[in-house]
């Protein structure tokens, strides 16, 4: 990039010659190599294959361009890179429908007639897409006359709008055909009486259990040695469980383009001048808006403040100017104008979300039971943040200990959750479960509701690295890349240069756009997947955002050739747990007496627990969680019987059935047939899509082009 910038500074014929030479130098290998489109080699013109039909890159790009033109005509702006990637997905999925789905439709003779299409557009059974397109944006009311008038005038509209309507009608036909297909399959679902009776018994038979449980984690991992031959043996026996994928693993170092001391000093002096101007400005909000690099609101709640400002504002006095405060590469100054009361409230809370596996009553009951168990642990003194990290089904907040940050009572959260948080008057755990459409929430209010607004005129100025700073960062990266050609040399250079930190990215898929926290890392991914990128080879310099990157390729996985290294961590855990189970079982075998006696003989790690009124469908064991193996063994016993030692999902058990209340006999199992049928129907679209795609043997090679 630094070299290109220097070329741009030149002029005349020389710049053309140099630029063309540079371009040929950078891409010549691709243009003239074995996959060259110029030489017609390899599969360079094929973007993928669906049901045996190859998709040509020109045809694919033409379809993407059509989608792009329609989108830009409607939105009145150019697409972002993310939006363009989304349109490529849309175009690819359209090919899947046109080829794989259409074969299924044709085999069944499914069609949408012209009369049906008219009925969908302007008849008695209007398509939801038409309803949305021709509804008044203010009232939301559909106007059929608007559709009729539009169609009457269609031929007078520009040709691109006429084509857009043709494509729209085509999509309506496809949507209706697919709906017919899915409805046909839904109506073919059937739940036999025996299965409904089994579900009823699983939900209604209740048992009181006592059990001894030795979890795998009670045996320290470092005491178990796992060999490669054991991993190979396990993988060979469970080959179907480990699907191969094409991925790459890399290590990389970054050379950040950080503002130099001179860049920072110049901005610091500028912002001090702005502080004097802000203090005396007759209209401080206008002055701040005119001079800030970042648009900032005048009235701020705690929900919209940065963490640094939250602490600083406590010391502000009305009329004072404060700062500069530095956050990253931005300096802020604030003029404080006091507080006022807002109509909206803000609060801060954390949550643990327990989500049902599906929408059946049994799955919901199981989720509730699990959530109640987690809530009981917290009320008994367990750490909320730790349980959020291990138990919450909300991955975004789980990694922050459940923290959701500040939010307002403006519908940002679902209604039951919002009502629970904003009804709290003090920080602390809400002592009940809150149910929403997402599942069961365990909520801790960390900052109760407040409707105080702070009037703050703020100016934010971001330090921009100078060109000299950028050139220096590129020089360092280029020098490093030219000095190392192998992984061994890469590692040796890192040891010598203590300022460089190595980062690792494992199992990167070919379609990836980001690498760890690196946005727009597409060029790095494409380099890693090139045929001539060998294991332990070092890349050229890549520029992403405000940094330069040099990478080394450390691993490859092949979809058609699964190796131990592709799943080493997962396989190691499985084999290690097998060995632990064998050790625990050997220590427990032959032990006599009641469960507490056996646990005492075993020693540290053995737990004896009870479960009351548990069912086979929703059974949740206190420490072991949901363990279907343990529950199945327990429910097969007679009262007073114990199992032998056996291995469950996460540890080793001895189960004892204390008592069991059998499900009462009933004559009608319709309710349970309906539950099971609806559960299957709710997954029908997903299952159909997966089955058709698998049957079509789709090969998606778009990542080699984009």
From TrEMBL:
The lineage of its organism: Bacteria, Pseudomonadati, Bacteroidota, Cytophagia, Cytophagales. The keyword ATP-binding does not apply. The keyword Metal-binding does not apply. GO terms for molecular function: peptidyl-prolyl cis-trans isomerase activity. One of its GO terms (cellular component) is plasma membrane. Gene3D superfamilies: 3.10.50.40. Keywords: Cell inner membrane, Cell membrane, Chaperone, Isomerase, Membrane, Rotamase, Transmembrane, Transmembrane helix. It is a single-pass type II membrane protein. Belongs to the PpiD chaperone family. This is Periplasmic chaperone PpiD. Residues 344-447 form the PpiC domain. InterPro entries: PPIase_dom_sf, PPIase_PpiC, PPIase_PpiC_CS, PpiD_chaperone, Trigger_fact/SurA_dom_sf. It comes from the Bacteria. It is found in: Cell inner membrane. The chain crosses the membrane at residues 12-33.
């Amino acid at each position: 990039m630094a070299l290109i910038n220097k070329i741009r500074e030149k002029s005349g014929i020389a710049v053309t010659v140099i630029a063309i030479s540079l371009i040929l130098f950078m891409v010549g290998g691709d243009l003239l190599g074995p996959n060259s489109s110029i030489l017609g080699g390899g599969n360079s013109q094929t973007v993928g294959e669906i049901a045996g039909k190859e998709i040509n890159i020109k045809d694919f790009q033409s379809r993407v361009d059509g989608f792009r033109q329609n989108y830009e005509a409607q939105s009145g702006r150019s697409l972002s890179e993310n939006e363009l990637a989304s349109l490529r997905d849309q175009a690819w999925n359209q090919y899947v429908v046109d080829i794989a789905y259409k074969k299924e439709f044709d085999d069944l003779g499914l069609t949408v007639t012209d009369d049906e299409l008219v009925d969908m557009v302007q008849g008695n059974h209007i398509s939801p897409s038409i309803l949305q397109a021709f509804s008044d944006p203010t009232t939301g009311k559909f106007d059929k006359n608007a559709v009729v008038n539009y169609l009457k005038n269609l031929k007078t509209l520009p040709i691109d709008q006429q084509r857009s309507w043709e494509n729209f009608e085509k999509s309506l036909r496809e949507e209706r055909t697919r709906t017919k297909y899915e409805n046909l399959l839904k109506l073919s679902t059937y739940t036999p009486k025996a299965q409904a009776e089994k579900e009823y018994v699983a939900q209604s038979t209740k048992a009181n259990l006592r059990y001894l449980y030795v979890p795998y984690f009670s045996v320290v991992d470092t005491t178990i040695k796992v060999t490669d031959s054991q991993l190979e043996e396990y993988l060979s026996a469970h080959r179907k469980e480990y699907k191969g994928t094409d991925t790459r693993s890399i290590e990389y170092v970054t050379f950040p383009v950080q503002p130099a001391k001179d860049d920072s000093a110049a901005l610091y002096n500028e912002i001090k001048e702005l502080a004097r101007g802000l203090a005396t400005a007759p209209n401080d909000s206008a002055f701040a808006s005119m001079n800030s690099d970042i648009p900032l609101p005048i009235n701020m709640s705690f929900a919209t403040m940065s963490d640094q400002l939250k602490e600083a504002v406590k010391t502000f006095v009305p009329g004072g100017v404060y700062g500069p405060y530095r956050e990253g590469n931005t300096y802020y100054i604030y003029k404080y104008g006091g507080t006022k009361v807002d109509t909206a409230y803000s609060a801060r809370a954390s949550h643990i979300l327990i989500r049902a596996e599906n929408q059946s009553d049994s799955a919901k009951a199981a989720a509730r039971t699990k959530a109640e168990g987690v809530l009981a642990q917290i009320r008994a003194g367990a750490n909320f943040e730790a349980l959020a990290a291990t138990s919450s089904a909300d991955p975004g907040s789980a990694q922050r200990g459940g923290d959701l940050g500040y939010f307002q009572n403006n519908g940002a959260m679902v209604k039951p959750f919002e009502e629970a948080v904003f009804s709290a008057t003090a920080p602390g755990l809400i002592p009940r479960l809150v149910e929403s459409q997402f599942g069961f929430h365990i909520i801790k209010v960390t900052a109760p509701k407040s409707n105080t607004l702070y009037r703050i005129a703020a100016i934010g100025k971001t330090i921009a690295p100078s060109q000299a700073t950028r050139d220096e960062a590129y020089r360092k990266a280029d020098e490093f890349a030219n000095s190392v050609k192998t992984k061994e040399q890469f590692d040796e250079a890192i040891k010598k240069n203590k300022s460089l930190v190595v980062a690792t990215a494992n199992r990167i898929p070919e379609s990836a756009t980001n690498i760890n926290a690196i946005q727009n890392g597409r060029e790095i991914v494409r380099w890693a997947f090139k045929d001539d990128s060998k294991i332990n080879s070092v890349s050229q310099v890549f520029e992403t955002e405000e940094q330069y990157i040099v990478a080394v390729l450390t691993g490859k996985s092949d979809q058609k050739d699964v190796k131990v290294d592709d799943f080493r961590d997962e396989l190691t855990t499985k084999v290690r747990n097998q060995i632990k189970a064998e050790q625990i079982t050997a220590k427990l075998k032959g032990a006599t007496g009641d469960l507490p006696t056996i646990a005492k003989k075993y020693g540290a790690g053995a737990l004896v627990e009870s479960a009351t009124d548990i069912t086979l469908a929703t059974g949740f064991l206190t420490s072991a969680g949901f363990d279907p193996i343990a529950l199945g063994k327990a429910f097969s016993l007679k009262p007073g019987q114990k199992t032998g030692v056996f291995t469950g999902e996460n540890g080793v058990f001895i189960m004892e059935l204390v008592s069991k209340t059998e499900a009462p006999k009933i004559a009608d199992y319709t309710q349970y047939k309906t539950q099971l049928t609806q559960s299957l129907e709710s997954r029908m679209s997903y299952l159909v899509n997966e089955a058709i795609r698998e049957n079509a043997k789709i090969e998606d090679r778009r990542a080699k082009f984009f």
